[in-house]
Amino acid sequence: MRLATVRRADRTHAAVGDDRGWVLFDEADAQELVGTSGWRDRAEAALRHPARIALEMQEFANPVPRPAKVFCCGLNYRDHIVETGRAAPEFPTLFAKFADTLTGAEDDIVVHNTDRLDWEAELAVIVGTEVHRADRVQAQAAILGYAVSNDISMRDWQQRTLQWLQGKAFDATTPVGPWVVTADEIDPNGGLRITCAVNDELVQDADTADLVFDAADLIAYVSQITVLRPGDIVLTGTPGGVALGMPEPRWLRDGDVVTTEIEGIGALRNTIRFDDGP
């Protein structure tokens, strides 16, 4: 099934859906829904009901708006490692984001004070149950599902120091969505095409089977450091094809449209806006 957070005129709602349409719930978002007892039974019962509604893409907000933790893995696709000129890592290369960095599936991405803005298509892993010091099997069982993301990066800020955080933590620059596809419906290890296009020009085209550390690896590894809870997010890294890896980088500009898509999950479509006013 799909789990979403939907904007309506008065408020947001959690929603569950499939190819036939959507059912709205009283909970404010998908994260609140999956935190309730018996949510899956309620969702499955709703999907057995024939009454559905159709939704436009701009109605989908970030499905999990309040993660306590957002972990990201850099250098995790083999082709991206090659384009950066580095060796394959022995352990995941981790950094963190904040909930304020996240935004919705078709929201504008408004940036400032950067002239080296880059794209990074990513598979997002959403935690569904509390997990701590897990092995791989336990980690896999704790995964709620998967969403599409793009780790829009300010490379000039990122490269000011050896620490990446400052180039990755600008507010409302990381779209997530458009919904979460539950883990019983899809397996990224089987290979899902992941792409990014800028103004319809394909710039990234890869397969999730090329991940060095897959979703279960990352959840298990991060859980050795800290407990993960429902709604927490792990971004699994980007494949080759980023601007930073080009001989003559083509950085994102005002008005560019970034389309990020993962086979079997969905697509994001975000317009870049520069706001360097006071």
Description:
The chain has 278 residues and is of the alpha+beta class. The chain contains 6 helices and 18 strands. The protein has helices at residues 30-34, 39-47, 78-84, 136-141, 155-158, 215-223; strands spanning 2-7, 12-18, 21-24, 60-61, 70-74, 93-97, 102-103, 109-111, 117-118, 121-127, 143-150, 153-154, 174-182, 193-198, 201-207, 233-235, 257-262, 266-274. The strands form 3 sheets. Strands 1, 2, 3, 4, 5, 6, 7, 10, 11, 13 and 16 form an 11-stranded mixed beta sheet that branches. Strands 8-18-17-14-15 form a 5-stranded mixed beta sheet, with no helix packed on it. β17 (257-262) and β18 form a beta hairpin. The longest helix has 9 residues, at 39-47.
In brief, what are we looking at here?
With 278 residues, this protein is an alpha+beta fold. The protein has helices at 30-34, 39-47, 78-84, 136-141, 155-158, 215-223; strands at residues 2-7, 12-18, 21-24, 60-61, 70-74, 93-97, 102-103, 109-111, 117-118, 121-127, 143-150, 153-154, 174-182, 193-198, 201-207, 233-235, 257-262, 266-274.
Keywords:
five-stranded mixed beta sheet, 18 strands, eleven-stranded mixed beta sheet, 14% helix
Structural class: alpha+beta
> Taking all residues together, what is the mean pLDDT?
94
Low-confidence stretches: none
User: What is the β-strand count?
Assistant: 18
End-to-end separation = 44 Å
Instruction: Evaluate the radius of gyration.
Output: 18 Å
Query: Strand share of the residues?
Result: 25-35%
What global shape is seen? Answer: globular
- Helicity, as a percent range: 10-25%
Number of helices: 6
Task: Give a short account of the largest sheet.
Answer: 11 strands, mixed
Write down the secondary-structure element order.
EEEHHEEHEEEEEHEEHEEEHEEE
